[in-house]
Automatic annotation (TrEMBL), chain A:
Keyword vocabulary terms for this entry: Amino-acid transport, Cell membrane, Membrane, Transmembrane, Transmembrane helix, Transport
Organism: Ancylobacter rudongensis
Main location: membrane
Locations listed in the record: Cell inner membrane; Cell membrane
Protein name as annotated: Polar amino acid transport system permease protein
One GO term of the biological process aspect: amino acid transport
Segments crossing the lipid bilayer: 12-38, 181-201
Membrane topology value: Multi-pass membrane protein
InterPro entries named in the record: AA_ABC_transptr_permease_3TM, ArtM/GltK/GlnP/TcyL/YhdX-like, Ectoine_EhuC, MetI-like, MetI-like_sf
Family assignment from sequence similarity: Belongs to the binding-protein-dependent transport system permease family. HisMQ subfamily.
GO cellular component annotations of the record: ATP-binding cassette (ABC) transporter complex
TrEMBL record, chain B:
Gene3D superfamilies: P-loop containing nucleotide triphosphate hydrolases (3.40.50.300)
Keywords: Amino-acid transport, ATP-binding, Cell membrane, Membrane, Nucleotide-binding, Transport
Record's protein name: Amino acid ABC transporter ATP-binding protein, PAAT family (TC 3.A.1.3.-)
Stored PANTHER family: AMINO ACID IMPORT ATP-BINDING PROTEIN, GLUTAMATE_ASPARTATE IMPORT ATP-BINDING PROTEIN GLTL
Subcellular location, record wording: Cell membrane
Annotated family: Belongs to the ABC transporter superfamily.
UniProtKB/TrEMBL annotation, chain C:
Gene Ontology biological process terms, A to Z: amino acid transport
Name of this protein: Polar amino acid transport system permease protein
Protein localization: Cell inner membrane; Cell membrane
Keywords, alphabetical: Amino-acid transport, Cell membrane, Membrane, Transmembrane, Transmembrane helix, Transport
Domain of life assignment: Bacteria
GO terms for MF: transmembrane transporter activity
TM spans (from-to): 20-49, 91-110, 193-215
Principal cellular location given in the protein's record: membrane
Membrane topology of the entry: Multi-pass membrane protein
Lineage start: Bacteria, Pseudomonadati, Pseudomonadota, Alphaproteobacteria, Hyphomicrobiales
């Protein structure tokens, strides 16, 4: 059973994949909220800026962005470690797609809720923090779950800028052993397992959030 | 800013409100005295709710003048649809409260927090003070036992009573009721009207009520205004309006709703 | 394919202008790959969606697992798998076809969900009416179900098509000469990546914006009630 000997190396790669993915999701989530809230609440200049960011990173291909940051930026004097580049580009991707999720969820909070907040003389910031965001976040979670899995899958692209993630390790082992079927099957299963774990975690978070909020989904739709 | 006994608390002077090509209020004049309880009746689309929504600063208006408690709604040189700064609008809102047709409770907050949240965040009360105030008000609307429930666990009538407590917690000078019982099942209307009826005895609370409950309007109001096509076409004491309406449109409307 | 081309790296603009013809050749490859991949995804997705609705539990369950697996694993690794493993079993495809197949497989997982949502959204009464009119299963799908789901699923399908176009650069790693591969080659020759990569990014941005605007138009034009096939 030769494939058993691949496991230690693949496991190391999987660890790198996991932490790059999680870091990208964490940073990307912050970007998503900033850009999404800017789209809804910002003045014209701020919301246009946020829109440009979103369209730019949604409209160009992720691999192009990755290579652009890795090969092109250093030529004008800006360079990062490969791992930082990988995390940054993935995070910008999550932020751009996530900002659409945040914007959509905020927009789905009913006009009546805004009016009730106004009638109670809440300011804009309080309305956002205490009234609309708490309701919107619950709506965002399923979409963010999908985005998280998307990010895990796309993180495989960082292997192309020489980061030793799961895909990179798989490539190295294949070049050494030429056992393509064994290596890639294991790798696919590895990603599948990580996706399932990520999915379970997101479901758990969603359930906890729903219980924490203690109001049923239908009540505010 | 000070007012003497005869000065109106609310004064609409030639207010015109349009939605696109549709004129909802047409050169509208209307005054309300401090502590007065006024009911607005009339066919739907006649502009009654718009009066309340303008007073709550939910809608801007295009022409004319509106003052509340000596405070003009539009600032000289103000910008935006309201022609006033957000700060000025919040100054106005601190004097007005509103109860909505569809309750509009915050679904993610308990009944207690629904009532106490704005006093904490907006008035700057401590949690304890705000909760004490909420406890009193929930007792007033008869829902002391529901304070830890969430809106989705309450009936429509209970939700509306919470909404009334929530509005009162801000101690407004003017309380606006926008068809507060229209979204309720008929058997739940009574409990909400009873609470509003109790409030009508409050001496210094000014109330504006839009409703289709004619018998109730007659019981609680000092004055009834009949709206038609963006104007008040007849107003007077409840007895005058309900027993001896003079305008043909009023007669027509009352005949249709009273049957 | 790079022979016979010269580039002028004097200024970024002249550089961009001189390499534009090469990049545009790459664009045609990108578009062809996306078109082929999406055609595969449309057909395979429908097959998956119908298998998923099979009366046999074993069939529907297996399909569900396959779809989930395709959806939860990276396109890049699927691509490597097809590229390196298929030849071991005697199936040697050109890189372009392997790439299109990988795109199609990955996106069939998405399109099958879109089909499924569309089919489930057809009211029960429509199926019952079709039964009452004694239509065959085939006729029911062709004349009743599909015409009704087309306007419903089109926006989602369109979005996936745009997403697929943006994923085609991955094919460059298995030697498909798309925009990305050519831009990289130019970069390697001139040690100047900024211009070619920026151009590729811009072209994707323009493509995406055009497609989004087109989809928006299409949604307005489509009759909400459905499109009869004949």
């Amino acid at each position: 059973m030769p494939w058993v000997s691949y496991l230690p190396s693949l496991a190391q790669g999987a660890f790198v994949t996991a932490w790059i993915t999680l870091a990208a999701i964490a940073i990307g989530a912050v970007l998503a909220f900033v850009a999404g809230i800017a789209r809804v609440e910002g003045g014209r200049a701020v919301s246009t800026l946020a829109l440009c960011y979103t369209e730019l990173f949604r409209g160009t291909s992720l691999l192009v962005q990755l290579f652009w940051f890795y090969y092109a930026l250093p030529l004008i004097g800006i360079s990062f470690e490969p791992v930082a580049t990988g995390i940054l580009v993935l995070a910008l991707h999550v932020g751009a797609y996530g900002s659409e999720i945040v914007r959509g969820a905020l927009a789905s909070v009913s006009v009546q809720q805004h009016e009730a907040a106004r009638a109670l003389n809440f300011g804009r910031l309080h309305t956002l923090i205490h009234i609309t965001l708490p309701q919107a976040i619950i709506e965002m979670l399923p979409a963010f779950g999908n985005l998280a899995i998307e990010t895990l899958k796309l993180s495989s692209l960082v292997s192309l800028i020489s980061i030793a993630d799961l895909t990179f390790r798989a490539q190295s082992i294949r070049n050494l052993t030429l056992d393509s079927a064994g290596v890639y099957t294991l790798t696919l299963l590895g990603y599948f397992a990580m996706s399932l774990v990520l999915m379970l975690v997101m479901r758990l978070i969603e359930r906890l959030a729903r219980r924490g909020a203690a109001f049923p989904r239908a009540a505010h739709s | 800013m000070t007012e003497n006994a005869t000065a109106p608390l609310i004064e609409f002077a030639g207010v015109t409100k349009r939605f696109g090509a549709l004129t909802v209020l047409d050169n509208f004049n209307f005054e309300v005295a401090p502590g007065e309880k006024v009911t607005l009746i009339g066919p739907s689309g006649s502009g009654k709710s718009t009066v309340l929504r303008i007073l709550m600063t939910l809608e801007p208006f295009q022409e004319g003048r509106l003052t509340l408690d000596g405070l003009s709604y539009q600032e000289p040189g103000g910008t935006g649809p309201f022609r006033a700064s957000e700060r000025h609008l919040r100054e106005i809102r601190s004097r007005v409260g509103m109860v909505f047709q569809s309750f509009n409770l915050f679904p993610h907050m308990s009944v207690m927090r629904n009532v106490a949240e704005a006093p904490v965040r907006v008035l700057g009360l401590s949690r304890e003070e705000a909760q004490a105030r909420a406890v009193d008000l929930l007792a007033l609307v008869g829902l002391s036992d529901k304070k830890d429930h969430f809106p989705s666990q309450l009936s429509g009538g209970q939700q509306q009573r919470v909404a009334i407590a929530r509005a009162l917690a801000m101690r407004p000078r003017v309380l606006l009721f926008d068809e507060p019982t229209s979204a309720l099942d008929p058997q739940l209307v009574g409990e909400v009207l009873a609470v509003i009826g109790d409030l009508a005895h409050e001496h210094d609370l000014t109330m504006l009520l839009v409703t289709h409950e004619m018998r109730f309007a007659r019981e609680v109001s000092d004055r009834v205004c009949f709206f038609d096509k963006g104007r008040i076409c007849e107003q007077g004491t409840p007895d005058a309006i309900f027993t001896a309406p003079s305008h043909p449109r009023t007669c027509e409307f009352l005949a249709s709703v009273l049957r | 394919m790079m022979y016979g081309f010269t580039w002028d790296t004097a200024t970024p603009l002249t550089y961009a202008w001189s390499i534009l013809p090469i990049i545009l050749i790459g664009l045609t490859v990108t578009l062809k790959a996306a078109a082929a991949g999406f055609a595969i995804a449309l057909v395979l997705g429908l097959v998956f969606a119908m298998l998923r609705r099979s009366r046999f539990r074993s069939v529907s369950w297996t399909t569900a697992c396959v779809v989930e697996f395709l959806r939860d694993t990276p396109l890049l690794v699927q691509l490597f798998f097809l590229y390196y493993v298929l030849p071991e079993y005697g199936l040697t495809l050109p890189a372009f076809l392997t790439g299109a197949l990988a795109l199609g497989l990955q996106y069939s997982a998405y399109t099958s969900e879109v089909y499924r949502g569309g089919i489930e959204a057809v009211p029960r009464g429509q199926w019952e009416a079709a039964t009452a009119l004694n239509l065959t299963r085939m006729q029911t799908y062709r004349d009743i179900v599909v015409p009704q789901i087309v306007p419903r699923i089109l926006p989602a399908m369109g979005n996936y098509m745009v997403a697929m176009i943006k994923e085609t650069p991955v094919l460059s790693v298995i030697t498909v000469l798309d925009m990305m591969a050519l831009a990289n080659m130019i970069g390697e020759r001139t040690f100047e990546y900024l211009v070619p990569l920026t151009m590729v990014g811009l072209i994707f941005l323009i493509l995406t914006l055009i497609c989004s605007a087109g989809l928006h138009r299409l949604q307005k034009v489509l009759p909400k009630a459905g499109i009869p096939l004949r």
